[in-house]
Write a structure and sequence with these properties.
173 residues, alpha+beta, Jelly Rolls, five-stranded antiparallel sheet, 3 helices, globular
Length: 173
């Protein structure tokens, strides 16, 4: 029996009602990876006929969770950013996305765009997901044709988020 978008959304809601912490979000990450293994889901929401851009697939009025498809024909590198008081889980459907975690440098924290340095990088391949808790700074880089699903704790268009200024790590002497 296949796992559907409707089942995933119901499972997300039930999980968050019991445990809206990092542990609960890790469970949702696992559920998203299960959903990304479903060929019918990928074909319908991320396949060649999927609408380009960002599409809201589901918004839960009880928990605020949003499930969005991201369909891109052109490559993009985002600046380091956070999702404010929300969390996000990225799940790769087609191609790949390079994810970079960032940390504050400790200087210029009071500026509109504080300085950050990369702390970890990894690549999401189809079927893989990555979790970013509230306020975690990250950046994404994907090629033309990349397609992914993003699950967020709220509608990100309704909250304050920040961008940051990337600085290169200094070479060891």
């Amino acid at each position: 029996m296949s796992y559907t978008l409707e089942q995933f959304c119901a499972d997300c809601s039930a999980t968050l009602k019991k445990d809206d912490t990092h542990t609960g979000r890790q469970r949702i990450k696992g559920l998203l990876e299960k959903l990304l293994a479903e060929r019918d889901f990928i074909a319908k929401y991320c396949g060649p006929d999927a609408a380009p851009g960002v599409t809201t697939l589901y918004r839960d009025p009880a928990t605020g969770v949003n499930v969005l498809s991201h369909i891109y024909d052109k490559p993009r590198v985002s600046p380091p950013h956070d999702h404010g008081e929300s969390w996000a889980i990225y799940g790769q459907a087609i191609a790949y996305t390079d994810m970079t975690d960032w940390q504050l440098t400790g200087t210029n924290a009071d500026r509109e765009r504080p300085d950050v340095r990369p702390s970890r990088s990894y690549r999401l391949f189809p079927g893989m997901a990555g979790t970013y808790d509230d306020g975690k700074i990250h950046a994404i880089d994907y090629p033309a044709g990349a397609r992914f699903i993003r699950v967020t704790g709220t509608d990100l268009d309704t909250i304050k988020r920040r961008s940051y200024t990337a600085v290169q790590a200094q070479a060891a002497e």
